[in-house]
């Protein structure tokens, strides 16, 4: 996934405030910051939070703030403006505290990045009652292209079948399993959102 491709999908502008939650090492937030007025990046994992700050320094990005906190707790306390919400939750998806708070915010656009079609579908079915949503389908750790295509097609079928108040846009980011396998030797047993996931984020900038 090339940076310019991802940035074109985010479509942020210099007038927009972006909230990037479940932000990991800050990759997506740093991309959005290129064309945003301000980005707030929220991640509960302390190690990932620290790495995100270092990534911003390394890339000379100064219009992004990093917060180490639970996404639901942060957004329930936040009273400022949010134009674009970027969500990249773990495979378990988001949670009720976060989603129930989001629907009461005046957010223009939500971008949800997921590696699990099941929890993605659950959260999208809820959120699509209130927002227009773009789904970026990215899952490099699937072993075969056939399985990758099956999951994408199943998600697309599901989105076509259930009724939404606002349209849901589905974007396939491509099958990157070979590049993924080359990056993870020795990291196969790493926990979710650990060093192995950091390698997935790196793929988005290669």
How would you portray this structure in words?
The protein has 9 helices and 7 strands; from the N terminus they run H-E-H-E-H-E-H-E-H-E-H-E-H-E-H-H. With 206 residues, it is α/β, with parallel strands linked by helices. The chain is globular. The N and C termini lie close together (7 Å). Residues 1-5 have low confidence and may be disordered.
Uncertain ranges? 1-5
State the helicity in percent bands: 40-55%
Q: Give the N-to-C terminal Cα separation.
A: 7 Å
Largest sheet: 7 strands, parallel
What does this entry show, briefly?
This protein has helices at residues 3-10, 27-33, 46-58, 71-77, 96-102, 117-127, 145-161, 177-183, 195-203; strands at 17-21, 38-42, 64-67, 84-87, 109-114, 133-137, 168-172.
